[in-house]
Design brief:
The complex is a heterotrimer of chains A (about 220), B (about 280) and C (about 220). Chain A is α+β, with helices and mostly antiparallel strands and about 220 residues long. Chain A has two helices and 15 strands. In chain A, a hairpin with a 2-residue loop joins strand 2 and strand 3. The model of chain A has no long low-confidence stretch (mean pLDDT about 90). Chain B has two domains: about 55 residues, N-terminal domain of TfIIb (Single Sheet); about 200 residues, Naphthalene 1,2-dioxygenase Alpha Subunit, Chain A, domain 1. In chain B, strands 8, 9, 10, 11, 12, 13, 14 and 15 form an eight-stranded antiparallel sheet that branches. A four-stranded antiparallel sheet of chain B has the order 2-3-4-5, with no helix packed on it. In chain B, strands 1-7-6 form a three-stranded antiparallel sheet, with no helix packed on it. The chains are: A alpha+beta (about 220), B alpha+beta (about 280), C alpha+beta (about 220). The structure holds FE2/S2 (inorganic) cluster. FE2/S2 (inorganic) cluster binds next to loops of chain A.
Chain lengths: ~220, ~280, ~220
């Protein structure tokens, strides 16, 4: 596992997919997280399990600066400490009730979560405009093969498209599943961006075929 | 747990063809033979014990040492008996029962029906394991409810009693709006198909002469379906019996007693013993 | 207007939801679909020989297709929900109305099999459901690039109501919604509409209400 000074950043979602006051489930290799944004715009990532009775917190709701569980309404701060137990309105929840949290960074329209304790910040993606995220039932090699490109050290696969480039920022979910963040370079007009959406659909189909033939057991 | 009684079907829906289902991982068939007798057959063709009670067929894979638990209200004149029908849930049978014993979730899961903010407080209530009958009981459970039953109009503080007479069954007694001196009876009978999969058969014995049967069924199905999406999303799937994995408060004393009682009897099908 | 209704049916919910959003009062007639199978009884077969619900009755008009009911409610009470501002918009409405039948067959079929034990090839139903969800997700991403938040326009139309229930209840049939960010945003936008109503399986958006005030000293 990660020691205190090592770790890495993994891209879990696009900023545009997480408006203020919402929560969504995201996957990291260790499992599911509840990724949420407070009403004032701060992002936070909590383990996707309420310490009370284990309900997934990504099914919960955000009010103000806290995330509440849908089951009994316990609410948690960004730091993970429990703020409120509605069944006991007068009770100040003890410090020991906490949900595990992960560091989050947001840059260039992409939200990253820390695995372990990485030094430094996530890689910059200046000049790339996020288009969408999609999940493929294929591993990273199958996606690279389908794209006919190579994977850069940051895990980006580049595909030429008209006058610009479609960049695929890949995040491994498990052995046969990859989250693809599609970012565009030099593709700005609406028709070309819509065409890029359609070509990512084709690319996913191709990658899943390759994966089924070559990698799946 | 193998020697306990479990619900395996609705008596009213028995047919000669027999229904294929399962009990604790073993495929079983529930049907009616040429003479009209109800038969439950195990995976290897052996005949399993049968009881017909509370609208349902009951059976067991083992040799039950005790008779099926009694619900005296089932013989009381004037009550209407309602078969609510089966709902399958991908969860531990024990988690399904525990959810049924809980009132603190009403404002968030059964919003504007069984509870509503800001009325979220759970007052102290009494919980005990009644040694003479070997059942878990919670009494004097009170909760503010916007629409406690189909027969209730407007909000009232409802009083509840909960009873766990068998590891996957619970009987709830609740304030009966048309007859303040009586209790409505709502049960949750859970058929464990596997440790993480169950068929839930709610059943009711009510004093309500005005609401249509369909309305009564729909009301209870609404409530249970609101719970279903919770039950399928608890982690871990199995019910943790060892302390440390989850954090109970005073509002959860029924659940604490239920877990303790399960552990004491080694009722661990659908449970997780070691905190991971 | 009389609706033959089952509380757990996503198709019936489409009609209840549309009526609520357009402030039309329905006379609801509950049908014991499960466990009673009342929709296969003589009385309801006389109204709808196909043996399905919902059925909407208004004087001598009897509708048995939910998309037709949505159009009827919108045309009567709130024509802006019909989505006829342009040729593209009108066509998109029809496209998604027809597409909603695929959602019913796949995700709806998976839900009946997983939840109410109706016979069905669960693996095939779930696979078809995932394909339909991917199509809807891509459609919504394209719409957002056009500056539109809903399936046919920048306002909700009958097309959204036709697709919403089976999509949002997909997890009931064992099909997770986690991988679809555009569907999540769209479903949230619909759930936040004035007069929106839920059905069992769709929780209240509690965040739309402020945190209740706690009296000091209450314990
Ligand atoms: S499980 Fe989260 S508040 Fe109870």
């Amino acid at each position: 596992m990660h020691s205190d000074t090592t770790g890495s950043w993994t891209p879990v979602a696009l900023s545009a997919d997480l408006p203020a006051g919402t929560v969504m489930p995201v996957q990291i290799p260790a499992g599911s997280l509840a990724l949420w944004r407070t009403d004032s715009g701060h992002t936070a990532a909590s383990a996707d399990r309420c310490p009370h009775r284990g309900m997934r917190l990504s099914h919960g709701f955000v009010r103000g600066e806290a995330l509440s569980c849908i089951y009994h309404g316990w609410s948690y701060a960004q730091a993970g400490n429990c703020l409120r137990i509605p069944a006991h309105p007068g009770l100040v929840p003890p410090e020991t009730i906490r949900v595990v949290t992960h560091m989050v960074e947001e840059a260039d329209g992409v939200i990253w979560v820390a695995l372990g304790r990485p030094e430094g910040r996530p890689p910059g993606l200046e000049g790339l405009v996020p288009l969408r995220s999609l999940t493929a039932l294929a591993n990273i090699d199958a996606i690279a093969a389908a794209a006919g490109g190579k994977t850069s050290p940051q895990g980006i696969v580049e595909v030429a498209s008209g006058t610009g480039t479609i960049c695929l920022l890949l995040s491994r979910q498990d052995e046969d599943r990859t989250l693809i963040h599609v970012l565009l370079k030099g593709i700005t007009d609406q028709a070309a961006r819509i065409a890029a959406v359609r070509s990512t659909e084709s690319l996913r189909r191709k990658a899943e075929d390759i994966h089924k033939k070559e990698f799946a057991q | 747990m193998i020697d306990e009684w479990y619900p395996v079907g609705l008596f009213s829906q028995l047919d000669p063809a027999g229904r294929q289902t399962a009990l604790m991982g073993e495929p079983i068939t529930v049907g009616r033979d040429a003479e009209g007798n109800t038969r439950v057959t195990g995976g290897n063709g052996r005949t399993l014990p049968v009881r017909l009670r509370y609208g349902h067929v009951w059976s067991s894979l083992g040799e039950p040492k005790k008779e099926l638990f009694a619900i005296p209200e089932a013989d009381q004149p004037g009550r209407r008996f309602v078969d609510v029908g089966v709902v399958r849930v991908r969860c531990s049978p024990l988690r399904a029962v525990e959810n049924f014993l809980d009132v603190a979730h009403f404002p968030f899961v059964h919003t504007d029906i069984l509870g509503a903010e800001p009325h979220t407080e759970v007052q102290n209530y009494k919980v005990e394991i009644r040694e003479d009958v070997d059942e878990v009981w919670a009494t004097q459970v009170k909760f503010y409810q916007p629409q406690a039953a189909k027969s209730a109009s407007g909000g009232i503080t409802t009083e509840y009693m909960y009873r766990v007479p068998a590891p996957t069954c619970s009987v709830l007694y609740k304030t009966c709006p048309p007859r303040p001196s009586e209790w409505d009876v709502i049960t949750l009978f859970v058929q464990p198909l596997a440790e993480d999969l169950c068929d839930v058969w709610p059943w009711m014995a009510l004093f309500d002469d005005t609401t249509s049967l369909t309305d009564l069924i729909h009301f209870q199905q609404t409530i249970f379906l609101q719970d279903r999406s919770i039950l399928e999303n608890q982690i871990p799937c199995l019910l943790p019996l060892d302390p440390g994995m989850e954090i109970p408060t005073r509002a959860d004393l029924t659940s604490v007693a239920y877990r303790r009682w399960l552990k004491r009897h080694n009722y661990t099908y659908g449970a997780q013993l070691v905190a991971q | 207007m009389k609706l033959y209704d089952y509380i757990l049916s996503p198709s019936c919910y489409k009609i209840r939801l549309m009526a609520a959003l357009t402030c039309v009062k329905l006379d609801i007639h509950p049908v014991d679909f499960h466990p009673g199978a009342e929709h296969k009884g003589a009385e309801l077969l006389a109204l709808n020989p196909a043996g399905s619900i919902p059925i909407l009755e208004d004087d001598d008009l009897v509708l048995t297709e939910s998309s037709a009911m949505l159009v009827y409610l919108a045309a009567k009470a709130a024509p802006e929900w019909l989505g006829r501002a342009s040729a593209e918009e009108a066509a998109r409405v029809q496209q998604w109305l027809s597409f909603s039948g695929r959602l019913t067959a796949s995700l709806g079929g998976a839900r009946l099999t997983e939840m109410l034990l109706r016979p069905g090839d669960i693996g095939a139903l779930q696979t078809q459901g995932v394909l339909a969800l991917r199509e809807l997700e891509a459609g919504l991403v394209e719409q957002s690039l056009r500056g539109m938040r809903f399936l046919a326009a920048n306002r909700p139309t009958v097309a959204d109501i036709a697709c919403f229930p089976y999509v949002v209840l997909a997890p009931d049939g064992g099909v997770p919604l986690d991988p679809y960010p555009a569907i999540r945003l769209w479903s949230r936008a619909l759930r936040g509409l004035d007069h929106f109503i839920e059905m069992p399986g769709i929780h209240r958006l509690h965040e739309l209400k402020p945190e209740p005030h706690i009296e000091p000293g209450e314990a």
